[in-house]
Amino acid sequence: MATTEYNIHMYTGTPWHSTLHALCFKPDIHFTNQKEGEIVLLSLRMHPITLLPAIFNIFIIFILMSTLNFIIPQFLGWFATLYINIFFIFFLCIYAWILFTNWYFNLGIITNQQIIDIDFNIVLSKEMTRTGLTSVEDVMVKTSGFFPGIFNYGNIFIQTAGTQINTEFLAIPRPGKVGQIIQDIIRQYGRSKQPI
Amino acid sequence: MEDLNNLFSVGGIVKIGGIVFSILSLVFTIQMYTHLVSVTRILQTRANEGMKTIGKLLVFVSALLLIVALFLL
Fold it and tell me: Angle A17-A19-A21 (CA atoms, 0-180°, nearest 5)?
């Protein structure tokens, strides 16, 4: 067997991660209904740079509130200003928390038996889609745009046979390499159904 | 009448706003926490316990804010 950086052999491949754990090989993750002998080989999250606009929003709102702190005390007094500030900071904490949890639990998992896409929104919904490796027809990698080109992230579309839902992982870091790993996993575990 | 005037003064509106905001944030953080617990049952990662602790902390802080807001009214 050829030795590669991402040796996908179930037992000898060394775990690694990249881009702030957005891309992990053999992560320490388990999920419900995980079958016996099923090993999580890859976990995918959106590139952290996609959180930058929201972080920028938090920064702008914080600057705005700090500026208002020079004006509000003249009308409301220091106690009301402090009161408003406490609520405001708490609001920003909740906003940051929503951002982080949505990023953290929006996860793609590729095991030696199936592909799982978890779409999670802490406020509204959660959805879990499973696709067997044997059903995968094609893996398409698409990178387009200015920032995806600079920061090397893109979308991965996994097309399945028949009426099964196609899976897509959006804004994944190092999409070329991830696509290659997924194809290697499918080649080894999907077609033959035999773990090597 | 004087009490009503105080209630609808700028300071009174700030205090009522604080109560409304803290009630909403309490409901919201409890909902977030339950949703978080349900997803941690589906997906077990090393960070799950930490995430749940932060979720509990947010619920606790929002409850504390509600108590403070009610106390100040």
Answer: 50
Domain extents in chain A: 16-46+106-191, 52-100
Q: Are A123 and A145 in contact (CB under 8 A)?
A: no
Domain boundaries, chain B: 2-72
pLDDT band at B7; cut points 50, 70, 90: low
Segment holding A153, helix H or strand E: strand A153-160
pLDDT of residue A1: 44
Cite the DSSP H helix spans in chain A: 52-68, 72-105, 146-151, 175-185
The two three-digit tokens of residue B45, written as one number: 């990662």
Is there a contact between A41 and A186 (Cβ–Cβ < 8 Å)? no
Residue recorded with tokens 């390499």: A177
Cα separation, A24 vs A15, in Å, equals 7
Give the model confidence (pLDDT) of A55-98 as tens digits: 999 999 999 999 999 998 888 888 888 989 999 999 999 999 99
Between 3.30.70, 3.40.50, 2.30.29, 3.30.60, what CATH number should domain A16-46+106-191 receive? 2.30.29
A86 vs B contacts (CB less than 8 Å): 65
Tokens, residue B19: 């109560």
pLDDT at position A17 over 60: yes
- Which residues 25-54 in chain A show a CB within 8 A of chain B? 27-32
Q: What is the pTM of this model?
A: 0.88
**What are the strands, taking DSSP E only, across chain B?**
43-44
Q: Where do we find the tokens 């944030």?
A: B25
- pLDDT, chain B, mean: 89
Facing residue for A122 by CB, picked from B35, B46, B61: B35
